[in-house]
Amino acid sequence: MSSSVEAITVLSSDGDEFKITVSAAKLSKPLNWMLEDVCFSDDCDEVPTIEVNSKTLVKVIEYCEKHAPRANSGASDSDAEELKKWDIEFMKMDVKDILFHILMAANYLHMEGLYDLACQTAADLMKGMTVSQIRKIFHIKNDFSSEEQEQLRRQHPGCSFD
Amino acid sequence: MMESETRTSMIENLPHALIHKIMNSVPYKDAVKFSVLSKTLHSIWLSFPVLEFDYTFFSSQPYNFLSSILETLHHRCPHRINKPLQRLRVKYPYVYRESFAFHTVFEFLLNIAIRNHAKEIIFDIHSKTLVDVRCDSLLSLFSSQFLTVLQP
Fold first, then answer.
1. What is the domain count for chain B?
2. How many contacts (CB atoms, under 8 Å) link A and B?
3. Which residues of A touch B21 (CB under 8 A)?
4. How far is CA A158 from CA A81, B73, B121, B129, in A?
5. Between B9, B27, B57, which is nearest A140 by CB?
């Protein structure tokens, strides 16, 4: 591997090319291993594919580039505060379209920070919601009969599902 | 059946560990809701490695609290055989009522937690009398290699 390389090119599962800086790619363990194993110099033709679709990969790379400086050098409290605000804005996304894709990608790319953030976002969306509201938010189809539903509710007599 | 009807939602296709993490990130009373959302999520709920029993939901009906504990164990323990329990939490913020055999239940739960190698055991119990736990359960509790948090 050439140590002079500052950014690498990767392919999304849709076949689009994306550039990601080396310091940002280090946030992901598999990408980091790839950096060590694969030749990323200019005369190398091999472009690794990441099994994440383009729309999701754009967001993942955006997250990595934002978090890389802090992850690599450590940051002051004011930086951490700013990053927290940025994370909240970053996570304002459509659930069906992208949040769960981000979760899958963070899981697949072993990105702990993004994984925790996306899980917390999904959790916050359902906190205090009724069962039918949660189904609507996450696009879940109720495949229980009303008798089954009633039986399940009886197993948790103390809990309100409405 | 139309294809759109057979397709499951994105959340149902996530790895179980990921859904368990989401369950663990909401209050337990919200996590319980996963059990009635859909059949797929119900089966994932059954293997959720956290058990919580909160008496405050049942304060007017103590017998329901006991039956709820038994129901939960009956439904979820078979799915949990040989899998370590992440957390067992029991909340009973009142002084014992002698008429109900709570101490037996708590001892029973403690034994379940120990047998399932629970990492966290939280007994949130306000009682004037100490929970009467038999010596052998305490011994195995303190010799547990898995326990990381214990809040009596």
1. 2
2. 97
3. 119
4. 39, 15, 22, 26
5. B9
**Inside any domain, residue A106:** yes
Q: Check A127 against B42: CB less than 8 A apart.
A: no
Q: How many domains is chain A partitioned into structurally?
A: 1
pTM of the shown model: 0.80
Q: Is residue A89 part of a domain?
A: yes
Tell whether A74 lies on the interface with B, counting CB pairs under 8 A: no
Kindly give, in sequence order, each residue whose CB lies less than 8 Å from that of residue B94, ignoring residues fewer than 6 positions away: B55, B59, B126
* Closest chain A residue to the Cα of B25, Cα to Cα: A123
Distance linking the first and last C-alpha atoms of chain A: 57
Whether A30 maps to a domain, the answer reads yes
Contact of A156 with chain B, judged by CB distance below 8 Å, is answered with: yes
Q: How far apart are alpha carbons A26 and A34 in whole angstroms? A: 10
Give the pLDDT score at B3.
Answer: 38
The predicted complex's ipTM stands at 0.83
Q: How far apart are CA A128 and CA A131, in angstroms?
A: 10
Q: With contacts defined as CB-CB under 8 Å, which chain B residues touch A140?
A: 9, 11-12, 37-38, 41
Q: A142, B37: Cβ pair inside 8 Å?
A: yes
Is A143's Cβ below 8 Å from some Cβ in B? yes
- Express each pLDDT in B132-152 by its tens digit: 444 445 545 554 445 555 555
Residues 6+ apart with CB under 8 A from A142: A135, A149, B37, B38
Residue A82 lies in a domain: yes
pLDDT in tens, B62-91: 777 788 888 888 887 766 666 788 888 888
